[in-house]
Write a structure and sequence with these properties.
278 residues, CNF1/YfiH-like putative cysteine hydrolases, 6-stranded mixed sheet, 18% helix, 21% strand, globular, binds zinc ion
Length: 278
């Protein structure tokens, strides 16, 4: 196993469009061919599987295609999305996963929420940490995860998959994940004391790749690589879109990311057929 926490390449999905967004639009001039296994300067400069809508919310195409699902990664410019009523937890950078059966603004202490209840929106708040949204298309179960470096080290994404498997009967290969905006390897330098926690061999400072780490964790938990979608984007680089704890310190705001199973269509009243002849 190599130093997997260092900057990892991000493969675009087939047909995925490369969008330069990290580094506030600056990208290397004529960078030449990309060396295999490396991204430029370790920056996440692409958004292979997502797009930003008119409300300032990043969405993943694969999730957007499901008409019974609503999801999104909020930005600092998405007040309407942020204000949607949502169930949240007191986040403590742990590996604790909460099973949610009813809507609550304080579902408990933990860093991941799972539910199979339609109409119940699950939300996490981040400002550099990685928001991860999960869905099981077969069983119709959803989860929202807050994964900073401590949560990633504790295995929060993996714990969430385990909870979905054990408590909701999900099969990991049916699960689909979306990794939202968070601090990129370009900006997340950590000292040897933190680096060592991820790799005991590491004795100097290094850059952590939280997107890559969580992606690998989900693959270890049984998800198919093709079903892990990446919005990517570095919260520290893209100041106009995101809050960043590293950049703004304690005054940093928080972005809201959420996911919800929509109420089934059958619960809507059928309109009476029109008897009037046109
Ligand atoms: Zn960055």
């Amino acid at each position: 196993m190599g130093r997997f926490y260092l900057s990892q390449p991000y493969e675009a999905s087939p047909g995925g469009k490369a969008v330069p967004l990290c580094g506030q639009g600056q990208r290397p001039v004529n960078p030449g061919p990309r060396p295999a296994g490396r991204s430029f300067d370790g920056k996440i400069e692409r958004m292979p599987d997502g797009f930003k809508d008119h409300g300032g919310v990043y969405r993943v195409r694969a999730f957007q295609a499901l008409n019974w699902l609503d999801h999104g990664f909020g930005t600092r410019n998405s007040p309407a999305f942020d204000a949607l009523p949502a169930t949240q937890a007191k986040q403590v950078h742990s590996d604790r996963v909460l099973t949610v059966r009813e809507a609550s603004t304080c579902a408990g202490v933990g860093d991941a929420l799972v539910t199979d209840r339609p109409g119940l929106r699950l939300a996490v708040r981040t400002a550099d940490c990685i928001p991860v949204l999960l869905v099981d298309r077969e069983k119709r179960v959803v989860a929202a995860v807050h994964a900073g470096w401590r949560g990633t080290l504790a295995g929060i994404a993996q714990r969430t998959v385990e909870t979905m498997t054990q408590k909701f009967g999900c099969a990991p290969e049916d699960l689909e994940a979306a990794l939202g905006p968070g601090i990129g390897a370009c900006c997340f330098e950590v000292g040897p004391e933190v680096a060592k926690l991820f790799d005991p061999q590491q004795e100097t400072k290094t850059r952590l790749d939280l997107h890559g780490l969580n992606r690998r964790q989900l693959i270890s938990a049984g998800l198919r690589p093709a079903k892990i979608h990446l919005v990517g984007l570095c919260t520290r680089c893209a100041e106009s879109d995101f809050y960043s704890f590293r950049r703004d310190g304690a005054r940093a705001g928080r972005m809201v990311s959420s996911i919800a199973l929509l109420e089934t269509r059958t619960s809507l009243q059928q309109p009476r057929p029109c008897e009037q002849k046109n």
